[in-house]
Amino acid sequence: MNQRMKGKTIIITGASGGIGEQMALKVAENGGNLALIARRLHLLEKLKQTVESKFQTKVEIYPLDVARYEEVPGVFQSIVNDFGVVHGLINNAGYGIFKEAHEAPFQEVKGMFEVNVLGLMACTGEVLPHMREQGFGHIINIASQAGKFASPKSSAYSASKHAVLGYTNSLRMEAARYGVKVSAVNPGPIATDFFSIADESGTYVKNVEKWMLNPHFVAEKVVDALFTNRREINLPRWMNAGSVMYQLFPSFVEKVGNKLFFKK
Length: 264
Description:
Blueprint: E1 9-13, H1 18-29, E2 33-38, H2 41-54, E3 59-63, H3 72-83, E4 88-91, H4 106-134, E5 137-142, H5 155-176, E6 180-187, H6 194-198, H7 203-208, H8 215-224, E7 232-235, H9 237-248, H10 250-256, H11 258-261
Parallel strand pairs: 1-2, 1-4, 2-3, 4-5, 5-6, 6-7
Helix pairs in contact: 1-8, 3-4, 4-5, 9-10
Enzyme class: oxidoreductase
InterPro entries: NAD(P)-bd_dom_sf (IPR036291), Sc_DH/Rdtase_CS (IPR020904), SDR_fam (IPR002347)
EC number: 1.-.-.-
């Protein structure tokens, strides 16, 4: 058991499936208490039952679409009332749609920013004053390699994750003065239902299936980083090397990788 986590209260958004669900199970395994947020109440209820049947830990569920900003303060106040103190927040809620810029309806673009960026900021804004006051806490924002290395057919999604990384990097410096840690997680493609929305044709999944990350593996890496000084988690390492190469030699990478990028 990870003693850093024992008895701590962790909020996870987007907890009803994928890496959110796996992170919840991992936190509970390590003795942490859970406040789970997602839109799909029936899946939250199922996860709560699983956690309570396997682990001796407190778990409460809160149905919420983080894009409904007016509801965020009330839900987070309920969490504080239920648990007394919040030690960690993992901003995991998010989605993507893979389309070329001229094909993406503005409502889809707006929706991605409302959840991926503004919802994340709204949730962070609710826990940050508490963490600053108590002089302790950890905020982990799930971004993406797409935020470091933009590619065709993901202009809006990449832009939203660029925004998450910019916000996270600024927040890290601000929060450090008060003992609050801030980390970014930049995974490549993960084998979850994310792609049922992002890639309706199944083309991208078919092309990258053998390189997709296991959600349990990603969740383990994220939860193991809680309450440590990890600035970023980049998965897989070879993909992050490509992101670094792109930052150093963007024209070369765009020219050489052009055909490959369009396989999305």
